[in-house]
Amino acid sequence: DVKVTQSSRYLVKRTGEKVFLECVQDMDHENMFWYRQDPGLGLRLIYFSYDVKMKEKGDIPEGYSVSREKKERFSLILESASTNQTSMYLCASSYRTNEKLFFGSGTQLSVL
Amino acid sequence: GQQVMQIPQYQHVQEGEDFTTYCNSSTTLSNIQWYKQRPGGHPVFLIQLVKSGEVKKQKRLTFQFGEAKKNSSLHITATQTTDVGTYFCWAGAGSYQLTFGKGTKLSVIP
Question: How high does pLDDT run on average in chain B?
Fold first, then answer.
């Protein structure tokens, strides 16, 4: 089975801190994604990557950046965390475009 | 990403009743996927529909893709408490920008 691992289940940070969320997949998938999930707003795409060192903005990229130096790892970076970035962050991967997504267990980030 | 509307946002049913959630797009889709997220869990893939008018079944779940490939539905027959969760559709239109509906949260009253 595909495994998508997110480094932390819960994270508490202070406003202004730089935050790194890590995601690793073990199935040689081409595509990786970062979503945030908020009640009533569903899953919103922040960034995605279809190849190493490639990245594309999703629907809500403001305040975030990403890094994909290796195929299996996709990092989400909050350069200066703000309270409105408190959310559940979900990483996902897929073998190819338009194929099914495999999600990690999520990171609940609280910014105080 | 493109817009995909999912309705209803919430549905409360008595155990044994049927349940349906709908996904609608203003543009023609290449495929549609359905996911289920249990409370406290992460979305898990259920099925993918690709062909116009396609109907697929998984036990008590029936998935349909519209003839015009602009809408889809998920129907659960005789709901059980294990069906509780949020059901999401994901609409693909040939681009990398993947769009999820906002989801339908299903509650089942025993």
Answer: 93
